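New to this. Help decode both lines:
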Amino acid sequence: MLTAKARLLAASRKQTLDRPPCICPGGMMNMIFEEVMESCGFFWPEAHSDAVKMAGLAKALYALGGFENYGLPFCMTVEAEAMGASVNMGEKLVEPHMEQPLFKDLSQLDKLKTLSVESGRTKTVLKAIHLLKAENANIPIIGNLTGPLSTAGSLVDMTVLLKSFRKDEKKAAALLDFVADNLIIFGKAQLAAGADAICIAEPSGTGEILGPVYFEKFTIPYLNKISQALKAPITIIHICGNLRSVYELLPQLNCDIFSFDAMVPIAEIKKHIPEKAVMGNISTHALSVMPPAKIAALTENCLKNGADILAPACGLSTKTPLLNIQTMLKTLKRTAAQ
C-alpha cells in the first residue's frame, strides 16, 4: 500500500498507480472551512499567525477524512505583507485580504522591502511546516507561494501594473523580478522546513486577463524563474480562468503538475500538456452548495476524463460542507476499486 506522500510523488511523475491522490494545496487554494475549525477548536483569524493552530487545522482536515495532504498557509497575502503591504486579517469565515496597494505607481518601487523569513507570518508558516513534518513523514506537506504577478498586483494597483506592460515594460519587469526573487527566498525556506511540494498559484496572471502575448512575456518567465530556482521535489502551478487562448503556451511552464479552473475541460487540456500531470478540477461552487450525489458525479467525471490528481478547481468556501469533501475521497476510492 502506497503512502499518501509516495502516491502524490508517483502521480506527479505520471507513473501507473492504484488510484489518483485527492489533494488541496492550500494557499490561494484554501483548504480550511468552518467545520474543520469547529472540529479542532482552532479558528481564523488567530490561526493565520499561530503555527500550532495553523498546523492543527491542516491535521484536523486530514483526520476527518478530507484531503490526503497538509497544505498551508490558508491565504494569498503572506508574501505581499512581508514585502511591506498592509493586510486585513479577516474573520472566522473571511480570509485575510489586502487593505490597499502599497503604492499607486511604479515610481515608488523603493518602498518595497526584502522578504524576511525570520519574523511575521512567513516565520509562522515555516514553523507550522516544521511541526507537521516532525509528526508524520508519510503525509505530503504542500507549501504555497502566491504567483509573482498576483503578488505584484497586491503591491501596486493592478490597473496601473497592467498598463505598465505597454507603457513602461522595464519597470514592470523590475517589479516582477524583485517579487520573484523574494518568492524564491520564501519557497526555499518552506522546502528547508520540510515541505514536500510547492504550489505556485497565479490567479491574476491568466491568459484570460493578459491575452497570449502578455501571458508569454509576464507570466511564464517569472513562474519558471521561481520553479527552476526552487527545484522542489514536486512543483504545482495553478492558473485561474479560461485557458483556451494560451493552450499552445502551457508546455513552456516548468512544473510537474498543472492545476486549472472548473471551466477548463480536463480531456481538452491534456492534449496540450501530455508530459505534465493534470490536477482538478471539481467546482468549488459545487462543493459549497451541491448535494453529495452531485459531488460524486463530478468526481467520477473528473476521473473518467483523465485527472491524474483529484482536487478542487480553486479555493474552498469557508461554508463548504465536510461531507462533500469526504465524498470526493470516498468516491475516488470506490471508483478505483471497481
The beta strands are 70-72, 86-88, 97-100, 141-146, 197-202, 235-239, 257-260, 277-279. The mean pLDDT is 96. The CA atoms of residues 50 and 154 lie 23 Å apart.
